[in-house]
Amino acid sequence: MKKPPKTILTDQDPWMKEAISKDLPSTKHSFCIWHITFKFSSWFNAILRDKYSKWCSDFYELYKLETCEEFEHQWPKVVAKYNLQSNKHVKGLYEIRNYWALAYLRDHFFGGMTTTGRSESINAFIKRFINSHTSLSDFTKQVWCNCQYISTFHF
């Protein structure tokens, strides 16, 4: 690779994080917010119960804050509101805030992408046509035929 990307968006895979920091030190690495919040129900639903939805809403407000100063000011207030100061997941989220909180990412161009959803939906589409025995020509034919079929619908 002649020129490394300026930014990259991934899930929280620790091996990816390590590889990117080592091999692409000038690239700003960000975590997909969907992958982070997807874990919330298993982390917080039982603890917060009827306050869970409000926590998610408050977290999203933190996520969208404009400046790092606002984030640093609001984070402890929201965490205290739900009595989550000693929660390991909340501590972990704070430790990696510069990978997901928009206030810490505003100076970097991500093309409006905050999730890896687009690439994952493409992956899911492709996996419908491929297995370990699929030849490249068969794969191409299957994808072409299905794309032609899908394009006949008007959404």
Describe this structure in words.
Residues 148-155 have low confidence and may be disordered. This protein has 155 residues and is mainly α. The chain has helices at residues 14-23, 33-38, 40-48, 52-64, 68-81, 88-95, 97-100, 102-105, 117-127, 136-151, and strands at 7-10, 28-31. It is built from ten helices and two strands, in the order βαβααααααααα. Helices cover 61% and strands 5% of the residues. A two-stranded parallel ribbon has the order 1-2. Helix 4 packs antiparallel against helix 5.
Tags for this model:
61% helix; 10 helices; 155 residues; mainly alpha; extended; two-stranded parallel ribbon
